[in-house]
Amino acid sequence: MMFPIMPWCRIDRAYSVGDVTIIRYRGRLDGVDDVVHQHLARVLGTYRTIEGRPVEHAAVVLYADRPFGSDIAPDEIECAYDWIQLACFAGLAGREFARCAR
């Protein structure tokens, strides 16, 4: 089982780029069986917030038309990673990080 997750990424909607869709996770994913949910909860339980509490909200990555938790080949992992980086970079491009007073 493969769990491509972004445990500290809180998004408000789904984002798609290339063969990748990044969706929000709030304790349940549609179309995913209980066994996968149990494994995902166990994996996310290892991550902590800055306050030391377990991470409950995250973003998960779906690759192409595969169900979440299914294995993907190494070249598909690399491709997904590239798409995720592109999506994250594009998201940062629209933000204003600091304003300089003149």
Mind explaining what this structure looks like?
The chain has helices spanning 34-44, 74-93, and strands at residues 5-6, 15-17, 20-25, 58-63. By secondary structure, it is an alpha+beta fold. It has a four-stranded antiparallel sheet, with helices on one face. The protein is built from two helices and four strands; from the N terminus they run βββαβα. The model has no long low-confidence stretch (mean pLDDT 82). It has one domain (5-93).
Brief summary of the model shown:
With 102 residues, this protein is an alpha+beta fold.
Order of helices and strands: EEEHEH
- Report the C-alpha radius of gyration, rounded: 15 Å
Number of DSSP-assigned strands: 4
* Structural class by SSE content: alpha+beta
Question: Roughly what fraction of the amino acids lie in strands?
Answer: 15-25%
What's the pLDDT, averaged over the residues? 82
Please work out how many helical segments DSSP would assign: 2
Low-confidence parts: none
How many domains make up the 3D coordinates?
1
Strand order in the largest sheet: 1-4-3-2
Terminal Cα span = 54 Å
The 3D shape can be described as globular
Helix content percent band: 25-40%
Could you give a short account of the major beta sheet? 4 strands, antiparallel
